[in-house]
Amino acid sequence: MTERDIEILEDLSKSKNITKTAENLYTTQSAITKRLQGIEEDCGGTLFLRSKWGLTPTPLMEKILPDVLRISSSLESIRSLASEADGSIGGTLVVGISANYARYRLPELLEKYHMEFPSVRLQISVYRSMDLHKMLTGQELPMVVIRGEYAWNGGDDILSEEDFYIAWPKSYAFADIVKLPFINRSSDLEFAGGISKWQKENGIRVDNQMTVNDIETSIALIERGLGWSVLPSLCLNFNGNFQKMVFQDDTSIIRRTHILYQENYAELPQVREFMRMAKELEESI
Length: 285
What we know:
This protein is α/β, with parallel strands linked by helices. Among the domains are: 1-64, Winged helix-like DNA-binding domain superfamily/Winged helix DNA-binding domain (Arc Repressor Mutant, subunit A); 162-255, Periplasmic binding protein-like II (D-Maltodextrin-Binding Protein, domain 2). It has ten helices and eleven strands. Strand 7 (182-185), helix 8 (192-201) and strand 8 form a beta-alpha-beta unit.
C-alpha cells in the first residue's frame, strides 16, 4: 500500500463520496475507483459499500481506519520534520474551525500565517462546534478551534473568553426593547437558561419571538430595527446598541474558545506556529 493509497482511504473515510475525494486529491473519479478496487483486492475484502447516497465504511474499513490515520500522521510528521531541518516550515496544517470563529477571526489569522509560512499546505474545515467535536473524537480531525465546553481528554488550550451582551437597534432606548421581538438563536440553546434568568431578573416578558440559526441573521434583523438579542462579544462590530448581560449577583455568562488537539499533533512545527499565532491574535484584540 502506497502513501497515495493512505491519502485515498483517509479522504474517503471523511467525505464518503468518490467525487469529493477526487476533487480533494486533484484527480478523476475513475482513478479513485480503480485504485480503491486495487486496495480492496490487497486487503482481501470490501472497504466501502456503494449506494446512491454515497459510501458506507464496512467493518473491515472501520477496523483498519485507526492504522490508516496513524500512518498518515506519521508521514506528515516526517515531512514536517524534514522541512524544519532545512530551516523552513512546510507540511500540511489540518484544522477544523467553528463557523463563528471562521467568520470573525480566521481571515486575519490565515493571512498572517500564510505570509509567514507560505510553504505550508492548508486544509481548513469550517463546521459547527458540535460537529467539530464529533470529528475530533472520531479521529477525523487532529485539531479544532471550538466554541463552548466539550469533553476531551487530549490537549486543550483556552484561546479566549468572552461575555454576552444585550444587542438592540440604534434607534431604540434600552427601556423600549420590550416593544420588540426577541431574536432567539438555536445555536445558543446551552445558554437558554441564563438568558431566561436575566429576563426574569429584569422584568422582561417575551411575548414575540423569532428563532434563527446564526449570528449574521440576528445582526441583520437588529440593524433593521426588527428585534433584540443576546450576542457574544466576538461579533459586536455592527451598528447597534450593546450592554453587557450581568445578573443581579454581578456574575455573567462566559463563553470560551478552545483549541482542542491530539497531543502528538501539536508537536509538528507548522501546528505549533498556528497555535502561537492564534493566541497572539487574541492578545492583540
